[in-house]
# Entry
Amino acid sequence: MVWVKNMVKNKKNSYNKFKYKERNRERIKREESREEAKETIGWCKECNLPILGSRCEICNNIPSEIKLSPPGDVRFASRKGKRLLAELFSREFGVSSFLDGKIVLFNKIPGQDRTDEIIIDGNVIGVLFFDLEEMDYRLDLREGGIPYLVDAKRRIVECNERIASQGHIKGRGIKKKDIVLFGDGIKRNDDVIIKFGTWLGFGRARYSTSDFSEISEISDEEIVLRVRGICGIDDKRIDEIKRRKMKKRTIHECVRANIGYLKGIEEKAVNEIKDAFVKNANKDKNKKQFTVSFSGGKDSLVACEIAKRAIGDSGDKKELHLVYIDTGLEFPETKKFVEDYANKEGLCLKVARANDAFEKNLYKFGIPSKDLRWCCKVCKLAPVSELFAKEYPNGCISIDGKRKRESFVRAKIGKFENNPFVPNQISYYPIREWRAIEVWLYITYRGLDYNPLYDEDYERIGCYMCPAELGSEFENVKNTHPELYRKWMDILLDFAKKASVSEGYVTHGFWRWRRQPPKMRELADRLSIDISKTLSSAKQERGKFIEINNLGRYCEASNNWLIEGKFECEGLAFERVVEFLKTVGYVRYSEDLGVAIVDMNGIRAKIFANGDISVTSERKLARKELEEIAKAILKGEMCTLCGICVNACVKNAIKIAQDKGEIQIDEGKCSRCGKCDEGCVVLKYHSNLAKIEI
# Structure
């Protein structure tokens, strides 16, 4: 009977495992379908408008579905963006009237630099991209754009009509002998319009107009272009195009078509903040201040409007503070917009100012880059953590406009999170699921004034020379703010000269990385630009800042292992190193002998002012302790006095002595928890700043 019971039990377990796997597979499918759904957008063909909900709220029709390339953060083209498109279509194909009065959407997709799918009338007609080689915008056509170019006047190639009757055309190479007309103005690798009878297509030219007409060596059998897409153009299709041209729409009509959907997402976001506000109001002893992280951008504007509506129902609007970080690198329009908005809405504005922190640290850390963004710590985190420590000692609840689709890093944000660098600050993200199109429709729906820089085709609002911005955005600065562009270019060229780096290294945007990604290495090869050196060569290189000479030798006299090392100490204030060593262990310091003795977890380390390190340990390897010593020495040499560690310390063991301009650590209060290291700009990027070999 026992074996029968076991058999039944095993069958039951197998069945449970099977059901668990089935449920798990269904869950994964649901999640994948949700993700896939997020990469689509609806389009009402009757009203010719994008639809975000299940139905068009003007005509009640079910919209057709447009698949978007991920991440699907689709947005409206700005006025300047539409002008740019019209100029490009006119320049390249001699026609752009089909854009007049149309809703134009951009969908950001992966590419070398700015790369946007272009959507009109519910069709992806092409891709707008910024060419870092030419430093100019280009168009890449898609099949959906063919009918709009039926009246094209430039880049026309006419082929023998019989090709259309030879079966599958898409992807086929067209030979020279089949070309009837090879139009003017065609360059190698240009997109061209291909005509054969009642068929219209587009392809990629392998020769320029001059090559085709002047080089007699081109064989009649030579393939001169390749077809990329094709469609039939008859009277019915032409009538359809004309009807589309007549359906001119505005963003206000788009709001009407999505009004119920907008009210729904607003209500959800408002309720989330209400919930946080009510919970906070019930904690009378340590009631936290409500703030909005207000950058002057579109997302923080919407987050603030949501917060105002939530708190307006259950509290005083004066209880809401705007927190703006003036990095010293902001556009003047942004600073003015933030001040004007706060005054208009009657909100208390708190400004965290970095002042000249960027200039002070520029020649210490070098040109900031995507992989060494020290400026964010020094110019953003440091001043805002100081402001919060001063203004909100009980902590604060910050409403933040971060959205998941903005970047891979932000894709994982939840409903709220605790700030690891600012104790007692809780950040709420009420619009985390919104796409850019929802944000802009909501701004229009509520009639909100927004930063005028968006009308200048800026997608993001931040520091004017941010290394994380696209090359196209920095080129835009040259047009809108030539004085700021020239100021930063002069600094970059100065670094380039000192580092013996070519001017092309700067003008083509290689300065935005220290370790160039594959796409930039390929670009460097095409442009013959040497990227073996970087702008960081302009400042003094440290080489091996700390080096442990051996893994340790056994000392019979002390019955311990002895590990020795060396650090570079030229021009180093050793007293600063001693102060930071207190975060590692208990320190005894002899100024006369120039030695600091650190006791930590049974390990004794002697650090000498001449750069010698001697560690005695019961273990052969004390790698963790050696790394802690190395980091403390590095902090002592490169501390920026940003104050992040001061505000992060839960024991109040760290302070800045204003009279001396030095960090001071109370050894009795310090618990060696490591919190002060988590936000330290020096340790964040220590692998880029110095080599530590242990």
User: Anything to note?
Assistant: The longest helix spans residues 2-38. Residues 1-5, 17-21, 26-37 have pLDDT under 50 and may be disordered.
